[in-house]
Design a protein that fits this description.
The complex is a heterotrimer of chains A (about 160), B (about 750) and C (about 270). Chain A has helices spanning about 20-30, 85-90, 100-115, 120-125, 140-150; strands at about 1-5, 10-15, 50, 55, 70. With about 160 residues, chain A is an alpha+beta fold. Chain A is globular and about 50 Å long. Helices cover about 30% and strands about 25% of the residues of chain B. Chain B has a seven-stranded mixed β-sheet with strand order 3-5-1-12-9-10-11. In chain B, strands 7-15-14-13-8 form a five-stranded mixed β-sheet. Chain B has a four-stranded mixed β-sheet with strand order 18-26-27-28, with helices on both faces. Classes of the chains: A alpha+beta (about 160), B alpha+beta (about 750), C alpha+beta (about 270). Chain C: Keywords: FAD, Flavoprotein, Oxidoreductase. Chain C: This is Xanthine dehydrogenase family protein subunit M. Chain B: Keywords: Molybdenum, Oxidoreductase.
Chain lengths: ~160, ~750, ~270
């Protein structure tokens, strides 16, 4: 079927098999490989993107279901004015190592901060329960989210 | 002020946070245009004879380019003898997940459809799903070998008299369970043969060069006919060392099919196809006096090697590190490795050392509990003392430097150990159903243990920029930043003019790679050595330009210019000008740092846990960790390594285990079933600093990649047992799941 | 991992959805949030020939009060439920439990109707709805019918819904002012409940204690007879048949059911 999605502000319209997953549409049709695939059971969150502004796991959404909707990927976070505060915070707080979970982790963070602009550390941990990271032990990811929320990071 | 030792944000991050890394599956190289996609058909049965494989239907499925089985592959397995791992199983499958066929299709979405049509007839054989079953030997994986025991090191006929003088002797079986490395990026490879007969493999690898050598040998090619490129790699943790058999098959298949090939494994495939780690069943015997002195320690290791022995040196490392930080007068060790019908075992963050530490640290706590002494006191009574270094252990560990008592003292002080013990006493007295537990682990480990050296090259270009080539192969560790700092500091060149390159065998033909926490001490030393050689060359050239004796010129480290010493206002020359004066137009030093001997990082961890004795659930409240790996180049990256290690170490103690049922079926083969540690299950980490240098490399540093993993697992494990000690629990296996804790409490209640 | 081939059809109205179901019968599956169905399809445990997308049916996304009943549109997402002010007052147990399902990403997609129709005994909301009581409303070719919650969970993944029927509404009696508690015991926060207990008033729902969500009827009877909560909780595992898994044996689950029921009843009383 023909699927048209506004990805990072630009319309991507492609004819794809009905069973195409959103994550593959983004990677193969939109050519945006920043969104990674880390599992096949909706467990890891590496493929997290924003669908109409809310975090979703793009491995568990059909491209067809996103037809006519808006998607934001890691490539769409920065603007002409520079990096998104979440991107800046992940770098400043060393919230990433190998980088594989990072796009999904950052988009989950963007969604979290929209819903809860000043989360506690415990709330951050709870809100990132669906995003796995093997490198950081999450400590600096929590720091990054706190930093991105404009709160002081306890050292 | 030098940049070294300061917190520097990573040069790697800009790309990773704006458009994501370029992992194997992200490659859009011209050479891969039109590549076919690959999937391995894997055995769903642990142990079976293959009586037939029908690929006809699959070959005729839409988009199928080729289906290959063992019958097609004309490659000799590397190992000799009866215990050999085939590239694709032909006669017998020996674990769930073993590859039996390879399917190539035009489009990715056609893979699973076609793979379903490969019809394999299996005649089931009995599974050998545990170490005990392997040792019993009723079913043999390799009947021609005559035994499931594939390696024995040492003699099991111990001299028992070493325990004669002991007032207390304890024996316990300590299980170090099988876990999945599970880097967030699974394995992947892309292969393209050139018209010149050279093959390029893009491989998610910790060391492209070793992979290159293995693939060349397997495919019967000269090394220079094979180029391996490790693009961005999404974590490895030991499980991406060298070339997996799949990479060889893909290289072969691309040649046979005449097409470029790309392969990305699924997570479910990864959890049975990628090597697992740990998987030791150990028996410790510890004997000593009631004053806390240990007189003798024995460690008997049985390594579950999985279906095919890929890493038989792991138990040897466990034996080497058996006595840990203690000056035990007598240490006896032996190890055996057995094959089972499970996924092969390989290196996983720590690789043999965590098992040694877990065993001895549990043994010390068992001993402490038996003689009624605080576990901190028992450790103090047995530490190797600072003045005894260098110290060689009875198992041959040639320790360089250590401050074990100070490490423990600092951690206990930072944690408020005495107050915590008091809180524990009061809560126990009050009958609090939530039990507080304190667990100590003091550890030493070996890094750069392979002692194989590393390559480093520094090029200074006429524009004043610098390229650093390293044989280390970072995949998250931030070495591009660290090595940039090293060179910037040494040559006085700002970081933004320095580029670090790694992971391409055409650029860097000779290297060992990144594993065993070796990269800074060996790879970093090589870079430092190359920078020093460049410095020496530059001095000569600068002397010519400045018309002075080499001894009279100096590099101003702040501004990065060469000048005549003590002649303010005279001429100066920058690096670009110096480089253009060199004969080749590029100032270059290409070195092999070969004299680096293994180093021995150490530390102390304290875990504070709370156990809900009604449900058995354990929550880690605090972890206070000191990891001493010598001087710190970039605290940001250094602490990041510690954090990651803590996360994985705690995970092993409480959550993670790769489990098989009696028939050898994995029951944790997806991330929905495997309890990969998540953010809500971990506390904030409390890090304590200490830096004891080594003399064994140019930087005085030890490795930090694995240290915190090694300390944290037994700290948490000990804390769980400590929490339950007053209810009669003496030991329980990892991971300390709620069910295990509840069961242990019930058994202790019954025994009471 | 990708699903087997299927045809995607999108319904813009309930009638359109029903027409598509009528057309394709057993070959069709409804998809809303897709977080039960798509994982199964990716692992190829499910392979429908037609997938009918009902996510666009905004007419089924609502929560409203109707007399002393809370009416919830089947396509209300967990994310909506956990923040809904009407639910917060009249069905706080449901609102709270919805906030513990999966993770935020799952809650942005998953729907209450999807969860109930999937009828997984390990899921949170079926036991909550069972404990709350009320009625489920389904529409089919012959019109609308109401199914009491007690008659909805027939067996593992089995409900009275016909292949050509669509769950449209969940009608719950208002529990405003009643004590409630939700005890969900997991290894990790992200996990399915090993055992869960949902209490509203003297009603006790059990998660993962059998092939379907259950009511702890022995406990409820004891409570009704005036037995103290701590004592009544000891009966929570009666007439259950909990599953056996490596990290949770039936005995352990029965023990947990008793412990968690005691905690939930105490918390509900205090609330």
């Amino acid at each position: 079927m023909r699927v048209s999605i506004e990805v990072n502000g630009a319309t991507v319209a492609e004819e794809v098999p009905d069973r195409t997953l959103l994550v593959h549409y983004l990677r193969d049709n939109a050519g945006l490989t920043g969104t990674n695939i880390g599992c096949d059971t909706t467990s890891c969150g590496a493929c997290t993107v924003l669908l109409d502004g809310e975090s979703v796991k793009s491995c568990t959404v059909l491209a067809a279901q996103a037809d006519g909707h808006e998607v934001t990927t890691v490539e769409g976070l920065a603007t002409d004015e520079g990096l998104h505060p979440v991107q800046r915070a992940f770098r400043a707080q060393h919230g990433l190592q190998c980088g594989f979970c990072t796009p999904g982790m950052m988009l989950a963070t963007v969604s979290l901060l929209q819903e809860n602009p000043k989360p506690s550390r415990g709330e951050v941990r709870a809100a990132l329960e669906g995003n796995l990271c093997r490198c950081t032990g999450y400590h600096n990811i929590v720091n990054a989210v706190i930093d991105a929320s404009g709160q002081e990071v306890a050292q | 002020m030098s940049i070294v030792g300061t917190r520097v944000v990573r040069v790697e991050d800009e790309k990773l946070i704006t458009r994501g890394g370029t992992y194997v599956d992200d490659l859009r190289e011209d050479a891969l245009t039109g590549a076919v996609h690959a999937v391995f058909v894997r055995s769903p049965i642990a142990h079976a004879r293959i009586s037939g494989i029908d690929v006809e239907q699959a070959r005729n499925a839409p988009g199928v380019v080729a289906v290959f089985t063992a019958a097609d592959i004309d490659l000799e397995p590397a190992a000799a003898g009866p215990v050999r791992e085939p590239y694709l199983a032909g006669d017998v499958v020996r674990y769930v997940g073993e590859a039996v066929a390879l399917v190539l299709t035009e489009q990715r979405y056609q893979l699973a459809d076609a793979a379903e049509l490969v019809d394999v007839d299996y005649d089931p054989l009995d599974a050998v799903a545990s170490v005990d079953a392997a040792l019993a030997g009723d079913t043999l994986l390799f009947p021609e070998h005559g035994s499931n025991v594939v390696r024995v090191h040492g003699d099991r006929d111990f001299d028992d008299s070493v325990f004669d003088e002991c007032e207390v002797v304890l024996t316990e079986r300590i299980l170090n369970q099988r876990v999945a490395p599970a880097p967030l990026e699974g394995r992947g490879a892309s292969v393209a043969w050139g018209e010149d007969g050279r093959v390029t493999l893009w491989l998610s690898s910790q060391n492209a060069q070793q992979a290159r050598t293995e693939i060349a040998e397997a495919l019967g090619l000269e090394e220079d006919r094979v180029r391996v490129i490790a693009p961005d790699v999404g974590g490895g943790f030991g499980a991406k060392i060298g070339a997996a058999p799949e990479a060889v098959v893909l290289g072969w298949a691309a040649r046979r099919a005449g097409r470029a090939v790309r392969w990305t494994e699924s997570r479910s495939e990864n959890l049975t196809g990628m090597t697992h780690g740990r998987a030791q069943q150990n028996i410790v015997t510890i004997g000593g006096k009631r004053d806390g002195t240990v007189l003798a320690y024995r460690l008997e290791v049985v390594q579950d090697a999985g279906a095919y022995p890929r890493a038989l040196l792991l138990p040897t490392l466990t034996e080497l590190m058996a006595p840990g930080v203690y000056r035990f007068p007598v240490v006896q060790t032996v190890s055996r490795a057995v094959v089972t019908t499970t996924t092969p075992i390989g290196a996983y963050r720590g690789a043999g050392r965590p098992e040694a530490t877990a065993a001895v640290e549990r043994a010390m706590d068992l001993f402490a509990a038996e003689i009624g002494m605080d576990p901190a006191e028992v450790r103090r009574a047995n530490f190797i003392r600072p003045e005894e270094f260098p110290y060689t252990t009875p198992t041959g560990g040639a320790y360089d430097t250590g401050e074990y008592p100070a490490a423990l003292d600092r951690v206990l002080a930072a944690a408020g150990y005495a107050e915590l013990r008091e809180e524990q006493r009061m809560r126990r007295a009050a009958g609090d159903p939530v039990a507080l537990g304190l667990g100590i682990a003091t550890y030493v480990e070996i890094t750069g243990g392979d002692a194989g050296g590393e390559s480093g090259r520094v090029d200074v270009h006429p524009d004043g920029s610098i390229t650093v080539y390293t044989g280390s192969s970072p995949h998250g560790q931030g070495l591009a930043t660290t090595f940039t700092m090293l060179v910037s500091d040494r040559l006085g060149v700002p970081p933004e003019k320095i580029t670090v390159r790694h992971g391409d065998t055409d650029e860097i033909p000779r290297a060992i790679g990144t594993f065993g926490s070796r990269s800074l001490q060996l790879g970093g030393s090589a870079v430092r050595q190359a920078a020093d050689e460049v410095l020496a060359q530059a001095r000569e050239l600068a002397a010519d330009l400045l018309e002075a004796a080499p001894g009279d010129v100096e590099l101003d480290a702040g501004s990065g210019v060469w000048q005549v010493r003590g002649a303010p206002g005279s001429a100066t020359f920058g690096w670009g000008r110096i480089a253009s004066e060199s004969a080749e137009g590029v100032l270059s030093a290409d070195v092999w740092f070969g004299e680096g001997r293994p180093t021995f990082p150490f530390g102390a961890h304290l875990a504070v846990v709370e156990v809900d004795t009604e449900t058995g659930k354990v929550v880690v409240r605090r972890i206070v960790a000191l990891d001493d790996a010598g001087p710190v180049l970039n605290p940001l990256a250094f602490d990041g390594q510690r954090h990651g290690g803590l996360g994985q170490g705690i995970a092993q103690a409480l959550l993670e285990v790769m489990q098989y049922d009696q028939d050898g079926n994995p029951t944790t083969a997806t991330l929905a079933d495997y309890s990969f540690v998540t953010a809500p299950e971990l506390p904030d980490f409390e890090l304590v600093g200490m830096a004891t240098p080594t003399t064994r490399n140019l930087l005085g540093v030890k490795g930090i990649g694995e240290a915190a993993t090694i300390g944290s697992t037994p700290a948490v494990h000990n804390a769980v047992v400590d929490a339950l000690a007053h209810r009669g629990v003496r030991h329980l296996d990892m991971p300390a799941t709620p069910l295990r804790v509840w069961t242990a409490l019930n058994e202790a209640r019954k025994a009471d | 991992m990708i699903p087997a081939k299927f045809a995607y059809r999108r319904a813009a109205t309930v009638d359109e959805a029903l027409a598509l179901l009528a057309e394709h019968g057993d070959d069709a599956k409804l998809i809303a949030g897709g977080h039960s169905l798509l994982p199964l399809m990716k692992l190829r445990f499910a392979a429908p020939e037609v997938v009918v997308d009902i996510a666009p049916l905004t007419e089924l996304k609502f929560v409203r009060l109707d007399g002393d009943e809370v009416v919830i549109g089947a396509l209300s997402r967990y994310h909506d439920l956990q923040r809904d002010p009407v639910l917060a007052q009249h069905a706080p147990l449901l609102a709270h439990a919805a906030g513990t399902v999966g993770d935020p990403q799952v809650r942005h997609r998953g729907t209450i109707g999807g969860s109930l129709a999937h009828a997984d005994a390990a899921a949170d909301l079926p036991a909550v709805v069972l404990a709350t009581g009320g009625t489920l409303v389904a529409r089919g070719p012959s019109g609308e019918r109401r199914i009491p919650a007690r008659e909805f969970f027939l067996g593992p993944f089995t409900t009275p819904l016909e292949p050509d029927e669509l769950l449209t509404e969940i009608r719950l009696p208002s529990r405003a002012g009643l004590g409630w508690a939700f005890e969900k015991f997991t290894r990790r926060a992200i996990d399915w409940a090993i055992v869960g207990v949902a209490v509203t008033g003297h009603a006790v729902g059990l998660i993962n204690m059998g092939g379907t969500p259950l009511r702890a009827t022995a406990t409820e009877r004891a409570l009704a007879a005036g037995t103290p909560a701590a004592e009544a909780a000891l009966l929570a595992a009666e007439d259950t048949a909990p599953p056996d898994e490596p990290h949770a044996t039936p005995d352990y689950r029965r023990h947990l059911a008793r412990v968690l029921t005691a905690r939930a009843l105490a918390r509900a009383e205090a609330s």
